Amino acid sequence: MAHSRPTIERRQLGAELRRLRIAAGKSQKEAAGIIECDTSLVSRVERGLRSLKVMELNALLDFYNAPSEQRSEIVDIGQVARQRQRRRMYSDSFPGGFRRVSDHEQEAKEIYYWEPEVVPGLLQTETYARALITIARKAVIDDPADDIELRVQFRLERQELITRDSPPHMWFVIGEPALRRPIGQHEVLASQLENLLTVGDRNKNVVIQVAPLSIVDHPLLGGSIGIFRFDGRVPDIAHQATFIGGGLYMDDEEDVAACSRAFDRLRAVALGPEESKDFIAKCLKELTE
Questions:
Q1: Is the pLDDT of residue 9 over 60?
Q2: Which of 10, 67, 262, 276 is the 20 to 30 A CA-CA neighbour of 199?
């Protein structure tokens, strides 16, 4: 019998199936008819509370006319979601991993990001995002032109989260190197710094802090981290991005608590929000003089 715990894998499978169903213009009732079950089961699957048998999953993918490349990805996720033994960590190495990160952002009530080297994606300007994505894609494929604009637009669509009705509380800590590293032309970075100065003022749900290089005993050296809190509806998640794939997820309560403690300690030693504005303004002035 399938477990009822809303694991990361089942939540991701449910989000993928919900996205396909809506794109196909189908209702949960119609989907239930295809796999001969009650509508409530389809709802539970889409909420990450149930997995599906392989035959059921394939029947729904046929009904939704899932693209072949996306179909194989979802079948793989479905197989992982059916595993009975709970895993402490889940490495999302399937295509579309960043889309699944966005799913968690959309559902979260609170979002916390630490980024040491680049401006967080939710705060990037279009020109900064394009320059950064172009650099990253050229590093791994010979001709990235076909997907750069799709990735840029997806990143900008993620940012609609900031200004939607009832947005999540969002707290960003950004490393000083991200404010000084030239991404694209100097004008690109200058525009990005200007955007950081205005985002917090315009959006009460957004807090931005800077972690300067002068911090002694930095509690989160070694990589970025994201923490998603869901107001007790489902287990909270900690996420670490990887260069290839969608990153590493943790939903074990002790692991998430450890990540949260480290983030809280970083907030305590970072510059306060007002000091951070002054620091960003200083970096901008130095860049434009």
A1: yes
A2: 262
Residue-wise pLDDT for 39-72, tens only, equals 999 998 988 888 888 889 999 999 999 888 788 8
| pLDDT in the model for residue 212 | 97
SS3 287: helix
The b-or-e profile of 30-41 (16+ CB within 10 A means b, else e) is ebbeebebeeeb
- Distance CA(127)–CA(83), nearest Å, equals 42
3-state class (DSSP) for residue 243: coil
**Which residues touch 35 (CB under 8 Å, ≥6 apart)?**
42, 52, 56, 59, 60
* Strands of 237-240's sheet in order across: 89-92, 247-250, 237-240, 225-229, 110-115, 169-175, 206-211
Q: In whole angstroms, what is the distance from residue 5 CA to residue 29 CA?
A: 23
**Whose CA is closest to 123, among 210, 19, 55, 40?**
210
